[in-house]
Amino acid sequence: MKTRNLIIPVVTALLLSGCIPSVNPFYTKEDIVFDPRLLGEWQTKEPSDEPQLWKFEKGDDKAYKLTVTEKDSKRGEFNAHLFKLKQEFFLDLIPSNCEYATNQADLVAFAMYPGHLLVRVSQLEPGLKLAFFDFEWLKKHLEANPKTLAHQVEQKDRILLTASTRDLKRFVLKHIGEGELFQKPGEMVRRSNPVTP
User: Fold this and answer.
1) Residue 135 contacts by C-beta under 8 Å, 6 or more apart in sequence?
2) What are φ and ψ of residue 154, in 5° steps?
3) Pair 132, 183: CB distance under 8 Å
4) Which pLDDT belongs to residue 157?
5) How far is CA 50 from CA 10, 27, 70, 164, 176, in A?
């Protein structure tokens, strides 16, 4: 997974470089929130050769059903939970169904353990600003401080986080500053509002 340094990063680049799955969720039940502003269809703001469409629908309880559609109609479905740590919003994504399908969204392939993926949500309106992990920063940090967060390094330098939810939350909040754990956010714009009955 390459880290791409773009002046205005797009969500596609974030997906390719920041998908680091975790065995455990990044939230507890008490952290979950539901915000109707997230519902509807969102598309990448900047023109891209690999456009993304994210559709959020209401799921069970406070969860969302997220459908990601990529170039060539590749699709993936996720159970998504919006949650807050202190004043910061995040999304925890886990694939609803992992299959080795040729038309499956790349985002599903990155979590084929299946694992929880973390997305920082720095803005919910008018545009949706999302940031994934900065893979290079995290890799270097864990190499220099291997005991700071439980993890395994898989083939091709893929990282699988094995830390407890409590340790994950603590680590995320400690390294949330600019130039640390998260990449600069990419922005998505609303394509459609949710359908109300």
Assistant:
1) 1, 3, 17, 18, 20, 159
2) -90, 180
3) yes
4) 75
5) 10, 30, 7, 34, 28
Rounded distance between C-alpha atoms, residue 153 and residue 138, angstroms:
12
pLDDT tens digits for range 152-190? 987 667 899 999 999 999 999 999 999 999 999 999 999
Structure confidence by residue, pLDDT tens digits, 117-150: 999 999 999 999 999 999 999 999 999 999 999 9
pLDDT > 90? residue 110: no
Can you give the length of the chain in residues?
197
Q: Cβ(186)–Cβ(119) under 8 Å? A: no
